[in-house]
Write the C-alpha cells for this entry.
Amino acid sequence: MTELPFDNSTRFAGKRVHLGICGSIACYRAADLLRAWRKLNIHVSATITESAQRFVSPMLFKSLGAMPVYESMFAPDEDVFAHLEPGQHAHAMVVAPTSADTLARLAHGNASDMLAAQALAFDGPLIIAPAMNPRMWDNSAVKANVAVLRERGAHIVAPGHGEAACGDTGFGRMADLPEIFLAVLRALSPQDMKGRKALVTAGPTREPWDGFRYWSNPSSGLMGASLAVCAFLRGAEVTALCGPINVTGALFLPDEVRRCAVESAREMFDAAQTLWPRMDMGIFAAAVADFSPQSIGQKKFKKSESPEGFTLAFHPNPDILETLAHSRKSEQKVLGFAAETVSTMQELLPMAAAKLKRKKADVLAANRVNEPAAGFCAPTNSVAVVDSRGREEIWPMQSKADVAWDLCSWLSQF
Ligand code: C5P
C-alpha cells in the first residue's frame, strides 16, 4: 500500500469510524483506507451493501481488522438494533465508494438497506466519496442528491477525472485515497484553527548560479507539509508556499490546501510578503537558503570558460520569518524553526530562545540536523520548543505528523 500523509500519527488512537462500502469497482480500494485507519489505531466498523458483496467479500474487511462487519439488515445472527449501532459509537461515518443508488437513499432519507438505515440514525460527521460512470455523475438527478447532502452538512469528497473502468472518460472515479483518508481525519480533529488563514512555508529553496545549476539543501519538505496538513485537519484555510520538494516524489497536500510552488528564496519571500497581510498565522518551516550565489549568466556555464576553476560571490537573502514577524499585526501568530548542529538536545533550548526573541516569533522549534533521525528527509523529528511566554520543553523523537500536531496545539493557544 502506498503511504498516506499522517499515517504514522498517534493522535487518533481510540477514535471510531464507521465505513460504508457500496457496489462499485472502486470498492476494493476501501480495503487500503481501512488498513490506513487501523494503522492509526482507529477502531473501524464496516457495512458492505449487498451489491458491494458481489465485488468483495466481507471476509476481506474482517481480516483487515474491521469489527463488526455488517452484511444485511436481516441477517439471522444480527442484533435487532444493529442499524443503530454506528450512530451510538462512531465519531465519523464515511461511505467510500458511494454508489448513485446509496447517494439517492441518503439524500431522500430512505432506510431500505442496512447502510442507509445506519446513515439515517447517525448524527455525526458524514463523509461521502462517490464513484460512478461519468455520465451517471453528470446526471441532474445525481447532482441534485449531492447538493441536498452537501446542504445538510455532509462532506462530499468529489470524484476525480480520468478513464472509468467501462472506458468512458470524465469525472466519476473515486477520489484519491489520501483525500478521503484526510477528510475523515479532519472530521476526527479538534477545530481549534477553524476559519483561520494559515501561511506555511515548506521545503528547500534553489538558488541558481547559471541557467541550469543551483545551490540548495536536502530538505524533503515533510515537516512543512505535515504542518500544512495538520493546520488543514484542525480547520484552518491553508496556503502552502512550497520550495521544489519533488526530489523524493511529490509530497501530498489535499486539494483544499492552496499550493504555490516557488524556487528561490527571493521568490518565496516575494510570495510570502504578498500573502501575509491576509493571514492569521505564519508557520515558517522552509529551509530557506541564507545566501544566494551571484548568477553568472542564463546559459550553461562551460568547463572551457574557466578551466582553472572559478569563484562565486554569495549575497544574503532576506529572512522571510524575521521580516514578516517584525511587520505583523498583533493578532497574527508566528511559528518558526531553527536547524542547528549541536551534540545535545539541551544545547538547543538557549539557541531556540535567542532565535525566538530575535525573530519575534510566538513559538520556535529547534532541531538537530546532525541527528539523522531528526534532520532533513527523516520521517521523525525531535525538537526543543520555546514560546514567547517562557514555556520551554524538549520533546522525544516522534513522527513529523505528531510534532506538527503538538506545535499546532502550542500555536493555537496564542
Ligand atoms: O536563522 P535561521 O535560518 O536558523 O532561521 C530558521 C527559521 O527562519 C526557519 O523557520 C526558516 O523557515 C526561517 N527562515 C526564513 N527565511 C530565511 C531564512 C530562514 O524564513 N531566509
About this structure: The first strand starts at residue 16 and ends at 21. Residues 93 and 126 are 5 Å apart (CA to CA). The chain has a mean pLDDT of 94. The pocket of cytidine-5'-monophosphate is lined by residues 201, 265, 284-286, 288, 290, 317, 319-321, 336-339 (CB under 6 Å).
